[in-house]
Write a structure and sequence with these properties.
This protein is an alpha+beta fold and 191 residues long. It is 54% helix and 14% strand. It has six helices and five strands, in the order ααααββαββαβ.
Length: 191
């Protein structure tokens, strides 16, 4: 495996969630059920009393259900449906972490998106000439949104702020700073 492939793999592992917890829990539940069925079968084969229920009794009750068994079966079925929906959602939803990869000549570098947002807010504050508390930003992938609240009576050049944020994030390399959206409040605050 080349160094570039290894770096891409490390970057992906750092920016995506692992689904191993859901998989491990599912396997533990399946293993416990299989162990219970096996234990009950062995106990029946040697003539001992069952731990919870005799497998033959469970099969007979399923073939000729009474009211109590039907209620228990409905509760178990509902729990299995809920578990199934949860597992399907976990399998299909994207497992992105709030992190982003940065191109670097020394190796794979991963940075939290809050740091990117803070960098964008700082660049916007400097370009707009407002305190940093008057700016806020969010970063996700290549999109960065910046919100500026100007000081009363001092206009803010939205294009200048946008260019400053693009320049600052562009120094990080790659996709950062390619899609910057700056919004400036109509009402300002007092200094």
């Amino acid at each position: 495996m080349s160094t570039q492939q290894l770096e891409q793999r490390l970057r992906r592992r750092s920016t995506h969630r692992s689904r191993s917890t859901a998989l491990a829990l599912t396997l533990v539940v399946v293993a416990l059920i299989a162990a219970w069925i096996g234990t009950e079968a062995v106990l029946q084969a040697v003539g001992q009393r069952p731990l919870l229920a005799d497998p033959q009794t469970v099969v007979d009750a399923a073939l000729k259900p009474d009211a109590a068994f039907t209620t228990i079966a409905e509760v178990i079925a509902a729990a299995l449906v809920i578990l199934g929906v949860i597992l399907i959602v976990l399998a299909l939803k994207p497992g992105r972490q709030p992190r982003s990869g940065i191109d670097h000549d020394r190796g794979a570098v991963v940075i939290d998106t809050r740091i990117l947002a803070s960098t964008a807010a700082n660049a916007a504050a400097l370009a707009a000439g407002v305190p940093e508390s008057n700016t806020s930003a969010t970063a996700r992938g290549h999109r960065t949104q910046v919100h500026v609240v100007p000081l009363s009576g001092i206009p803010v050049d939205r294009a200048r702020v946008e260019q400053a944020v693009q320049d600052r994030l562009g120094r990080l390399g790659g996709k950062h700073g390619t899609a910057v959206k700056v919004t400036v409040d109509q009402k300002g605050t007092l200094a």
